[in-house]
Amino acid sequence: MIRSGHPWIYAEALVPPPEPLPAGAVVEVVDFSGRFLARGLWDPGSPIAVRVFTREPGEVLGEALVRGRFLAAAERRAGILADGVTDACRLVHGEADFLPGVVCDRYGGVAVLRFDGDAAASLRPWVVRAAGAVPGIGRVLDRPFSRTRRSRGPASRGTAADEAPGLVVVRENGLTFEVDLGRGHKTGMYLDQRDNRALVRSLAGGRRTLDLFCYVGGFTVAAAAGGAGPSLSIDISKPALAAARRNLGLNGLSADERELVPADVFAWLESSESRRRTWDLIVLDPPSLAPNRSSVRAAVGAYRRLNAAVFRLAAPRALVLSCSCSSHVDEAVFRKTVLAAASDAGRRVEVVESRGAAPDHPVVSSFPEGNYLKALLLRIV
To answer: Which pTM value belongs to this model?
Structure first.
């Protein structure tokens, strides 16, 4: 696994070091004959004990390596931002960009960082400096995962990331969105769904549209911009729905035909209210239902129930975009579950397209765990 390029080494696969090491210590991993396998960062508080950064014996794990990989990853995304109709994208996608545990999203002139685990967080001063070197970046924010402490120690002068929240307005495929960088989900916005929002926009013309788990209205705005008919968007968060309404306004889209309803989607789908109308285009984009492997069985059951309920609300020839961001539910299982749900609902469907995350969230062959976002576009037949 290590020689084939997988970037994670689990604690259970290792002989423990002879003495305790701090998170972020650079370690070499060798086989039982003493041959070098990899060099990476040690994380004693995680099941992933080593994040692999290099398999080259002579390659130094230092600031030059981190900076070089960061700037190379950012340069690979330059084409997404080149025409100016989009100014928000992922600059660094962790393991897929050879910086395990490091994520950087760009929102206009702001870079937002997240570090998965204390080992990755130890790189914070280097990553902040690298982010600040990207042309056009004037501010760097830190959005830690809940399990990630800030860093091993204070950053040196000139390397500190701004931790203050803030609102920015960004462009995506010519549409405008308000993003809360301090409190928004993930780094502020679900950038991975950018291309799927564009797809919905292209399909929405004249269609009655239902957007479930709509959050701040990404798909709602895209559908409205595409000329959708009457629409209903549901999310449990009232602040998110308020942001969705503002996002419609930012794009000059009337809210008169756009119902924004605060409700638990699971409960709403089981209510009589949900069965009063049918829809021509339905987007189902729930939060991750399988945070770990032990929850996969329950998650698959929940996906099946959700999708069956959605199919029952679909009009003849309706389109359904069904999504899963649960990395532990793989693509084959998700597809099988959605098709089983169609059978449960007594509907015949065809799979029009199988999709994933936008290309700034790449999946590499040596790290299949990175294929977390699945999306199936289906048509009722």
So the answer is: 0.92
Enzyme catalytic residues: 325
Sign of CA dihedral 156, 157, 161, 165: positive
Question: For residues 73 and 67, what is the distance between their CA atoms, to the nearest angstrom?
Answer: 10
Quote the tokens at residue 371. 């294929």
Per residue in 312-325, pLDDT (tens digit) is 999 999 999 999 99
Residue ranges of domains in the chain, CATH in brackets: 8-54 (no CATH), 63-168 (3.30.750.80), 190-380 (3.40.50.150)
One-letter amino acid at 58 equals G
Contact call for residues 348 and 308 (beta carbons, < 8 A): no
| 325, amino acid identity | C
| Over residues 186-196, mean pLDDT | 96
| Alpha carbon distance 211, 231 (integer Å) | 8
Amino acid at 357: A
Residues 7, 48: Cα–Cα separation, whole Å: 10
Q: What is the mean pLDDT of residues 328-348?
A: 97
Residues 6+ apart with CB under 8 A from 352: 319, 377, 378, 379
For the stretch 192-223, pLDDT in tens is 999 999 999 999 999 999 999 999 999 999 99
| Distance (Å, whole) CA 331 – CA 19 | 41
Amino acid at 262: P
Alpha carbon distance, N-terminus to C-terminus of the chain = 44
Residues 6+ apart with CB under 8 A from 123: 24, 41, 66, 99, 102, 115
Give, for 311, the enclosing helix (H) or strand (E): helix 296-312
